[in-house]
């Protein structure tokens, strides 16, 4: 009797590097919110003075602050002191940071993070979408987490393996199961690329005064604009993103060397996070709309190569392309799972003698089959 091969029947893993990329994004965004929230809770260590009055004054200044006058009026109309509002916001940001770092309900937290970052640009009194255009790029990375989840090294993935009613409720509310099945890696990488292009262009075209940031003060505007065009067009985007990651790493290290670890890291927290985001794209990109176009097989080709994929006979590049498709196509994912389950059931068969009547019928069918 023919021996059935020992196939791997475990669920398909994400393409090589994607789990690490999702972990890096969670840690980067978590660091941004942890530092920002800690500054609102304890402003002293961040050189904002011993009390909260200096913090409130720096945030509510109509020219250089971070809270528009209309927002301050709304808060005071509710009889809420601005200092108390900032304290609550800091607690929310720290809680959000902890959730991102451990990877709990990552799709929901990713969406909340993106919404908060966009809200920050709206609430800034002067040129918010331009002044803190980096938050737009961070929001794009948060949307990638909302789409793909926290990855293998997250609390969400650990909860998936548990079997309890509460566990299923948490996963449902957190959107984890939908994220595991939905795919969308190419769309997420495209969002990251366009968000980075917008940040580079805004930093290049607007500088001086409140529009100065570590990006446009460390590189000339024309160089930033050229990088923005290359990233937006997708031309050799992986290499450009890799160069951007290296440059932003130097910016972050320089800020820490100048101001010390805590203050320097807080001052350049967005640049450090953007460094990680650019490195993620360089590691697992490019997206399918970049130039030159990466290989992305169709469903028919995946179906044809599925046996070789399960057997492990595909070259590394072909296997990676198949896995990218499987991550983005729920139908092919289901087909692969069904295929592996069928193989697993076949492995459970035992060696038994064929009943004589069955053997006789099969022999007759073979004998009577037409020659062609």
Descriptors for this entry?
single chain; 372 residues; mainly alpha; 19 helices; elongated
Strand content: under 5%
Largest β sheet strand count, sense and barrel closure: none
Percentage of residues in helical conformation: 55-70%
Q: Write down the oligomeric state.
A: single chain
- Residue-averaged pLDDT, rounded? 85
General form: elongated
Secondary-structure element series: HHHHHHHHHHHHHHHHHHH
Distance between the termini: 27 Å
What is the radius of gyration computed over CA atoms, rounded to a whole number of angstroms?
Answer: 26 Å
Total strands? 0
Q: Care to describe what's here?
A:
The chain is mainly α and 372 residues long. Among the domains are: 18-206, no CATH class; 299-350, Arc Repressor Mutant, subunit A (Orthogonal Bundle), CATH 1.10.10. The chain contains 19 helices and no strands. The protein has helices spanning 18-41, 53-60, 69-77, 82-102, 106-123, 128-131, 134-148, 155-160, 165-174, 176-182, 185-205, 221-233, 237-259, 261-267, 269-284, 299-311, 316-328, 330-347, 356-368. Helix 5 (106-123) runs antiparallel to helix 7, helix 16 (299-311) crosses helix 17 and helix 17 (316-328) crosses helix 18 (330-347). The protein starts with 17 loop residues before the first helix and ends with a helix.
């Amino acid at each position: 009797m023919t021996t059935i091969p020992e196939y791997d029947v475990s669920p398909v893993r994400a393409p090589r590097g994607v789990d690490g990329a999702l972990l890096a994004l969670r840690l980067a965004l978590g660091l941004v919110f942890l530092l920002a929230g800690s500054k609102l809770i304890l402003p002293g260590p961040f050189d904002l003075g011993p009390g909260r009055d200096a913090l409130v004054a720096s945030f509510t200044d109509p020219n250089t602050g971070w809270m528009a006058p209309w927002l301050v009026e709304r808060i005071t109309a509710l009889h809420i002191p601005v200092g108390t509002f900032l304290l609550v916001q800091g607690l929310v940001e720290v809680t959000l940071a902890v959730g991102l770092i451990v990877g709990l309900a990552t799709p929901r937290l990713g969406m909340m993070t993106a919404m908060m970052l966009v809200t920050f640009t709206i609430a800034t009194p002067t040129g918010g979408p331009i002044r803190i255009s980096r938050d737009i790029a961070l929001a794009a990375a948060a949307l990638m987490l909302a789409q793909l989840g926290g990855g293998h090294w997250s609390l969400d993935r650990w909860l998936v393996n548990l079997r309890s009613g509460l566990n299923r409720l948490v996963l449902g509310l957190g959107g984890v199961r939908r994220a595991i099945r939905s795919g969308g890696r190419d769309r997420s990488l495209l969002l990251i690329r366009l968000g980075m292009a917008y940040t580079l262009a805004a930093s290049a075209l607007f500088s001086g005064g409140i529009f100065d940031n570590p990006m446009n003060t460390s590189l000339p505007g024309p160089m930033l604009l050229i990088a923005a065009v290359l990233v937006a067009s997708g031309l050799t985007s992986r290499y450009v993103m890799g160069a951007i990651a290296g440059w932003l790493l130097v910016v972050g290290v320089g800020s820490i060397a100048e101001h010390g670890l805590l203050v320097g890291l807080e001052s350049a927290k967005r640049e450090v996070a953007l460094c990680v985001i650019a490195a993620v794209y360089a590691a697992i990109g490019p997206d399918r709309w970049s130039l030159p176009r990466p290989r992305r097989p169709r469903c028919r080709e995946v179906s044809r190569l599925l046996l070789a994929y399960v057997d492990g006979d595909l070259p590394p590049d072909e296997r990676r392309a198949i896995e990218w498709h499987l991550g983005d196509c729920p139908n092919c994912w289901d087909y692969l799972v069904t295929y592996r389950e069928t193989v697993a059931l076949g492995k459970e068969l035992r060696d038994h003698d064929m009943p004589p009547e069955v053997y006789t019928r099969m022999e007759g069918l073979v004998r009577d089959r037409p020659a062609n």
